[in-house]
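DM between two lab members

TW: hey, do you still have the DUF1348 domain-containing protein entry open?
JB: yeah, one sec
JB: this one, 159 aa:
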Amino acid sequence: MTSPAAPRPPLPPFTHASAVQKVRLAEDGWNSRDPDKVALAYSLDTRWRNRAEFVRNRDEARAFLARKWARELEYRLIKELWAFGGNRIAVRYAYEWRDDSGNWFRSYGNENWEFGEDGLMIQRHASINDLPIQEADRKFRWPLGRRPDDHPGLSELGL
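TW: and the structure you got?
JB:
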């Protein structure tokens, strides 16, 4: 079951160009740090594994995202397409954030996504590792929100 909402392009089956577009749209959404907006990209019955946490529907996804961004301050994310086929996309990503004590981290991850015909994500499997960094070692310094088009991606940054 997906949502009765309007389709969310680009729709599967993905081409290289549409997969790259879908990844950038996901990055932009998550960089908004708006749980209500981001949750709309997922089916009503979406299923996630994020680290060791399991999410079973859109409402749980929204609550998960609200908790995440309350804890991960100054959040900035870059995603990059790794592979695609049919209605599935694999991405790698990194994001930088700080905790409420001022400690900075760069988190590295991989995600596997599966989409319904309407373009909503029905499955998301994420594996993530956190690396403590010094504030001076941050690479993601754009103003909060969408990554500027001229900001380097992961490969260009050597990540």
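TW: got it. The longest strand covers residues 73-85. Strands lie at 42-50, 53-55, 73-85, 88-98, 104-115, 121-133.
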